Amino acid sequence: xxxxxxxxxxxxxxxxxYREVARAHGVSKSWVGKVxxxxxxxxxxxxxxxxxxPGHIPNRTPAGTEEAIVRVRGELTAxxxxxxxATIHFHLGAEGLEHVPSVSTIWRILKRRGLITPAAAxxxxxxxxxxxSRASKRALAIRRDPLEARVWHAGRHPELP
Length: 161
Prior knowledge:
Layout: H1 3-12, H2 18-25, H3 29-42, H4 63-79, H5 85-95, H6 103-112, H7 119-122, H8 124-127, H9 134-144, H10 146-154
């Protein structure tokens, strides 16, 4: 049996106190009060868990703008041009769109729609070295090659790229 329904029946039908029921089931007294109040206002149907998602997101990019982003990307791709977020941002500005979203917002919209994938997901083995500092590249070279480690510790280390 659902805990909310059991709590309501314990309070309403059995006449037990909110505090007693809350202590017996390890829930807060205020939660018991909320559940009982919802039951009194709407019956057992009101005990169904409610969504915690917001009713609307005030800063969300309008659907028309998202469609314009997807349309411009399709046009650029069909013409054989670069269809990245920065290029789309430029073209939306040239079209005179009322509010042109930032490049990062355009990128997130394209990613959410599945039109682009992050570069690291496409070829992770190629990008590993691109984000490493010179010192960490040297440390990796020393770990991979025992001869390199001996040369390094002797003080005659060659410069790594």
